[in-house]
Amino acid sequence: MSGPAQFDRIALIGFGLIGGSIARAAREQGLAKEIVTTARSAKTRARVMQLGVVDRVVETNAEAAEGSDLVILCIPVGACGAVAAEIAGHLKGGAIVSDVGSVKGAVVKEMAPHLPAGVHFVPAHPVAGTEHSGPDSGFAELFINRWCILTPPEGTNPRAVEKLRAFWAGIGARVEIMTPEHHDMVLAITSHLPHLIAYTIVGTADELEGVTQSEVLKFSAGGFRDFTRIAASDPIMWRDVFLTNKEAVLEMLGTFNEDLSKLTRAIRRGDGEALFEHFTRTRAIRRGIVEIGQDSAAADFGRPHEQLEKKP
Ligand code: NAP
Fold first, then answer.
1. Does 107 share its domain with 238?
2. pLDDT tens-digit profile of 26-75?
3. Ligand 1, atom 41, residue with closest C-alpha
């Protein structure tokens, strides 16, 4: 326990990678007297009960929201509006309502109109994740030293914002505040476009005619393998990200296509100088990420090779 609990009751609606990690971390840090959760399917709810990392598992979103001081929607972005409508009449006065969605403009637009006056809406996005999902995939350390971006609408009670900031800091995150529009633009380049590129390249390799699929898998350590990790991310979550952050992604994609054309031209013309200059610049960005502690300098995204099982 790290001091007195910040909340009497926290409700986590959705218990996958993010909801499950918040539950584990908040419990470990003693940030709530009670943690209540629910998930869409009876199967997930039963599994959460077995895991024993929350105090109560309830059947409905409304039941979870009832009497909770902090309600966090940990579900796909596309489901947030409907769930906000469902819980609206069950929220306690003064409660903080938040989410963890990877897109913020759409979440604000879909959720805000349903929430009653007297409830504080502070959307959030922890910029931390893995390619795994489901109730078993979460872990308490997921947010340590990762950024969590809060996008409170104008006029939000500053005390509510501060309370949520302290909560995320309590589970290890560093917190920054920005507008939903700016968030969506930043994440379009740092997260959404990289996922789109990974999904594209892995799909392209899958459909090649001159190279067999077994060759693609066998020689994947040449670079392809690292894209497959990103392209293994949850299809529902990522479908929703591209449907809801359309404008910012299309804008970044336009810039990306122009830059790809420049590199294509350099290759076609045999312009080694242009290629060398470009690759030198990008290498420096990788060093910068390591320097600010957002990744390890170890090869393979820091995964030790001993973890790989030997296959025939
Ligand atoms: P996840 O592991 O797939 O878990 C999703 C949870 O939401 C499950 O408990 C699921 O219930 C529930 N759910 C799904 N559809 C629902 C619906 N229509 N109504 C109510 N509940 C529903 O997903 P996750 O990775 O934790 O992602 C959750 C949110 O976090 C997403 O908005 C995503 O954008 C955001 N996020 C993800 C990452 C990441 O790397 N994964 C990082 C930062 C933020 P069942 O199990 O019963 O289906």
1. no
2. 999 999 999 999 999 999 999 999 999 999 999 999 999 999 999 999 99
3. 129
- Residue 187: CB within 6 Å of ligand 1? no
Indicate if 190 and 170 belong to the same structural domain.
Answer: no
CA distances (Å), origin 185, targets 112, 154, 180, 189, 225: 20, 19, 9, 7, 27
List the CATH number of the domain containing 48: 3.40.50.720
Ligand 1 closest atom vs CA 75: 7
Q: Which of 17, 111, 241 to mutate to test the pocket of ligand 1 (most atoms within 8 A of CB)?
A: 17
Looking at residues 182-211, what average pLDDT do you find? 94
Kindly state whether residues 65 and 209 are assigned to the same domain: no
Split into its structural domains, the chain has a count of 2
Secondary structure, 3-state, 141-202? CCCCCCEEEECCCCCCCHHHHHHHHHHHHHCCCEEEECCHHHHHHHHHHHHHHHHHHHHHHH
Q: Does residue 148 surpass a pLDDT of 80?
A: yes
Is the shortest distance between the CB of 102 and ligand 1 below 6 Å? yes
pLDDT above 70: residue 2:
no
Does 1 reside within a domain? no
pLDDT tens readout for residues 210-222: 888 889 888 888 8
Does residue 127 fall inside a structural domain? Answer: yes
Domain interval for residue 204: 182-293
**pTM for this entry:** 0.93
